[in-house]
Amino acid sequence: MANQQKTEANQGRSGFQFLEWLPWEKLTIWAVFLLLVYSLRSFFFIIFMTFIIAYSMRGLVDWLANKISPDAEKAWLHRLLTVGCFLGLLLAGYGGGSYLWPKLKEQVEDKLLPMANELTDNPGGKLDEVLRDTLGHYLAGEKYGSPGDEAYDQAFEEYRKQGLHYKEFEAFQKERQRVESLFEAALVKKRAAEVLEQELSTGSQEDRLLVWILAEDYEEVLEKKHGQYNELKKLREQEGLKIEPFDELSQDVQRQLVEDYVRKEILSNEKALAPYQERWRKRREVQGLDYVRKLKNENPVEYRKQFTAFYKTTYKAVEGSAGEDDPEAAYKKFTELSAAFGSPNPLQSFSKVLDGTATSGERTEEDLRAGFELKARSETLYEWKQGKIAQEIGNFLVTTSTKSLTRAGTGMGDVVKQSFYVAVGLGLSLLLSFFIVFDLTKMRRGVRRLQSSRVKDFYLEIAPGLISFGRLIGRAFQAQAVIAFFNTVLTFLLIRILGIDNPLFLCVIVFVCSFIPVLGVVLSSIPIAIIAIAQPDGGIWLAFLAVVGVLFIHLVEAWILNPKILGDMLHLHPVMVLAILAIGEHFFGVWGLLLGVPVIVYILRFVILDEGIPGIIEPIRPEDLLKAGEADAAAVELAAAGAGSDGE
Asked: Is the Cβ–Cβ distance between 221 and 278 less than 8 Å?
């Protein structure tokens, strides 16, 4: 009977017996560890950079110490070398930064940000230029042929007889739009400041914000206060107090409660206040834009008067498109050339005005042909756009490119803004890594003492894998940094040869993207191609040459640098790498791109196969940690015994 009951009990739980096989202790330990890592995700950049710097500097210190004192390990020597190495790193960083930072800042402020703003404000204009240099070039060739063809020679001779300056006409049109955009942006900024000054004349900024928030978002804030009031009401009722429901309060009392809520929960909370301040600022900008639009349409005389003053005072800053040294003369010529755009034939009128100036100069055959071919490409593209199919294709391209180029322009601006936070994080990482390397021996012994503490099981489970993973990451990123350096140098030479703007900024992107396997070549090519297209003398052909050059450099990396430097450390099939990067980027963003492949290599080599990377990184076992802990204890006892004998 007892055996029958036991058999029935076993049959009843047979469906859940697999749960008994699971290593619940290990699963719990790793769950706690991963939860801890997730809670520190906001500091991941600092943690990661601290580890990379400490790992690299510790390797350098050990190498120098072995060269100086190969027979015995001396703590004072390691500390002295640590101080020297970090001082050298700081001096090298300061020297390199002092030389490169002004140039990088100049490139970003003078070229990159204006280019990003142009892409954001007028992406369709840049698309027209790309189509003109590609499709327009093809259409013009179909219509006129090449030099020596009858149609080409006749059209070119007619262009010469008319004395047209199409190249200068288009360049001046762009410059005119740019100067007017600068003027209107300055006028909007000035008007927004005047609006703010007027608003602050009736109270402090906090009072004005209070009034504005209540006027703009009263219902939303009222609902939040209503919820807060109800929660407080429940607490008071639990204490035996009776509070009147919020809906039964008078309108004046409700408004007073809302005002108090805004002062305490929004105005005194920087994080909560930031969105309102941004909206308040944008509202003033909208008022400034309305003012400029109204001034331009309803009072053109005043608009032109203010533009004249702006042009003359900022003439040198915008490099004076009229080509005169005297601002008065430059503005006079600017107005004469601008007036040509109001005539029935703007190009003909502009060319006559330009011919009448002292700066027009003698035109070469090459200049004439360049102007004619540019005109031919523009006109044939315009004719093609009039077709129904072309209009549908054009609308699709404009919509797609507008979104893409706007995102690209905004992205370039965001990269510049984030650089400050990266610099702060690097500074903190440098400080932390110095203290770690300086006192690493004591820290290591202190951590190993955990094997005799109450968290022994946690330590012996986590530490071996963490040490192996750390060694893999450290060795891989050291090797990848060398490859990234060569990639960056070669790319810098390519960019300078092709004449692409912002070489330092682009090389920073190339250096970072070089740490991303396979996909890095695509990511680094995108900003290079965008700037090659967007710069004034750029185009689709320049972007094509740049992309081909970058691909060639990465082929050199794949065939020469990777086998020699990285070896088989992170080798995976390219298809698997792309899948890992796609999944990693989706869930973890940039960190998924940087660490996705090393993490998968660790899981495959160390967790599943338990073989490590033979000859490079061997897996760490718990018994290895126990032996190291016993060696530390013996060393401490020996040191204590030596100190005791000295005292006797």
From this structure: no
Alpha helices in 145-204 (DSSP H): 150-162, 166-200
- Work out the mean pLDDT of the chain and round it to a whole number: 77
Q: Which helix (H) or strand (E) holds 612?
A: none
Q: Do the Cβ atoms of 488 and 509 come closer than 8 Å? A: no
Q: Measured between alpha carbons, how far is 462 from 41 in angstroms, rounded to an integer?
A: 19
d(CA 638, CA 416): 56
* pLDDT bracket for residue 646 (50, 70, 90): very low
What is the rounded distance in angstroms from the CA atom of residue 49 to the CA atom of residue 237?
52
Cα–Cα distance for residue pair 434/449, rounded to 1 Å: 23
Neighbouring CB atoms inside 10 A of 561's CB total: 22
Report long-range pairs for 215-223 (Cβ below 8 Å, ≥24 apart). 216/279, 217/276, 218/258, 221/258, 221/261, 221/262, 221/266, 222/254, 222/258
How far apart, in whole angstroms, are the C-alpha atoms of residue 343 and residue 170? Answer: 16
Domain boundaries, the chain: 150-384, 439-631
Three-class secondary structure assignment of 382-399: HHHHCCHHHHHHHHHHHH
Question: DSSP letter at 165?
Answer: -
Sequence-separated (6 or more) residues with CB below 8 Å from residue 295:
187, 302, 303, 306
Q: List all residues 6 or more positions away from 600 whose beta carbon is below 8 Å from its beta carbon.
A: 572, 576, 580
Instruction: Give me the percent of the chain exceeding a pLDDT of 90.
Output: 1
Helices and strands (H, E) in the chain, number of each type: 25, 0
Q: Report the Cα 224 to chain-centroid distance in Å.
A: 35
CB 439 within 8 A of CB 76: no
Nearest Cα neighbor of 292 from 279, 280, 309, 306 is 306
Give the long-range contacts of residues 387-396, CB within 8 A, separation 24 or more.
none
Neighbour-count burial of 289, counting CB atoms closer than 10 A to its CB (0-12 exposed, 13-18 middle, 19+ buried): middle
Kindly tell me if the per-residue pLDDT of 257 is higher than 80: yes
Q: Is-contact 214 262, C-beta < 8 A?
A: yes
CA distances from residue 36 to 103, 340, 416, 628 in whole angstroms, order as listed: 42, 69, 31, 26
Confidence of residue 412 (pLDDT cuts 50, 70, 90): low
Residue with tokens 């402090």, as numbered in its chain: 204
d(CA 575, CA 592): 16
Amino acid 137 reads: H
Q: Which two tokens stand for residue 487?
A: 């990639």
Nearest to 541 by CA among 527, 529, 525: 529
Structure tokens at 535: 């710069």
Strand, coil or helix: 364 = coil
Q: Phi and psi for 147 in degrees, rounded to 5?
A: -50, 130
